[in-house]
Amino acid sequence: MDQILVLDFGSQTAQLIARRIRDIGVYSHIVPGNIPFDEIDLSEVRGLIFSGSPFSVYEPSAPTLDPEFLNTGLPTLGICYGLQRVTHDGGGKVEKKTTREFGRSRIHYRSTHPLFDSIPENFVSWMSHGDSLDTLAPGYTLIAESENGHPAAVGCKEKNFVGIQFHPEVTHCEFGTQILTNFALKMCGARNTWNMNTYLENETEEIRRVAGNRPVLLLISGGVDSTVVGGLLLKSLPPHQVHLMYIDTGMMRKGESAQVALTLEAFGAENLYLINASSDFLPPLKGVTDPEEKRRIIGDTFIRVQEREVNNRNIRDSLLAQGTLYTDLIESGKGVGKSAHVIKSHHNVRSPLVEEKRARGDIIEPLGKLYKDEVRRLGLTLGIDPKVVGRHPFPGPGLGVRILGEVTPEKCDILREADALFIDELRARGLYDKIWQAFCVLLPVRSVGVAGDTREYGSVVALRAIVSSDGMTADVYPFEMKDLLNISSKITNMIPSVGRVTYDISSKPPATIEWE
Description:
The chain is 32% helix and 24% strand. With 516 residues, it is α/β, with parallel strands linked by helices. The longest helix is centred in the middle third of the chain and has 22 residues.
């Protein structure tokens, strides 16, 4: 099968590059960027992509590239750090600029190149870098500049190489998919025979191979990811082998438990356990304000409760299945290779108990190569109800990472009600399906207000609503002001303890979607 090989230098979007190529219908595979050339089989590889990186090429610890990868004759695309790495190694100069480029930037052509076939002048790219090319390497020519006058695309015919300073893999880059299509299909001549049915077949075989005859336990939240994993397990294994356990942490959304029960019953699962464990989760969080520590406590408690309930139900020697996505892995610094930075620790990734199970090979993570929109497509392929597949994402630690500062039962109740009102209003206004993710955040401050003739200090709630397709980049949903005013009024009137509502207008990057 034709494939495009992605060399990952620790980029937060390396897997996104690969899945964009898969969206085109070409299989893509990721390897560490500093892998020795002689360890790679290029027999089915039709092109190479060098990813971005959190490092600067002039740093002593920056990941390096085996120079033989530039001598294959294969079409090669360098993205951001990938371009800078090739420039630096080839004798050019890369340096930090006083003007950084993050977000939108228009691209102006200085010469033609097949990478930009059918793409108009002045299109909007998506930048994310502080370094820039000061001097091109010998033999390399300028193809395009950014609106700030920095090199945005560079090529070398001798090496069959083209490099770009922006990120075509993110959804906010205009014509990004067309650029990658030009590379994969036109420049590389790869055949587009890859699809989600192929992925489903491969994962089904892998689940059967790993599980064997052992019982498989899935901690299911009722969210999209764990629901899809549940459907995949039940499709791959006999129902008696699959055990679905829902643990109510006391930090779930309003009505979550009832919704989970209805969803799981529709699966026809033989082994379903609904457990109220709020008394296990909330006391250890008393006085804890650090978000990473909260995630660690919640993650460890998940495993301890699970192990206790497994022992009570005599489901020993079971494998643990998780709805871990690739976004969870890379934000937790667990991407391909060892060059990725930790953005935030996901409880299902970096918890010591989870890592111990992963090291023993006791975890099944069939979504670990997928992004959220791919998970939704897989769910539909499995035949899961579109309403369930279309639910907004909900973090594994639940409201615990949407309450900034200490988590208490009282704060959970306030946030649960505010969040439910927000979501109900979005549905009533026909906005829910236009928004990729929406939720409320309870801030660790109180604000003065007036109720009638009385001075009061109320809680402050922030509304968050973003549009995205994969969670790696996100823009703010552009509410009509009347909608925000009405939603704010509804929350402050219906929840007396909330005295102020704000709206988060930060994009990703530089912010993340969740606040913690």
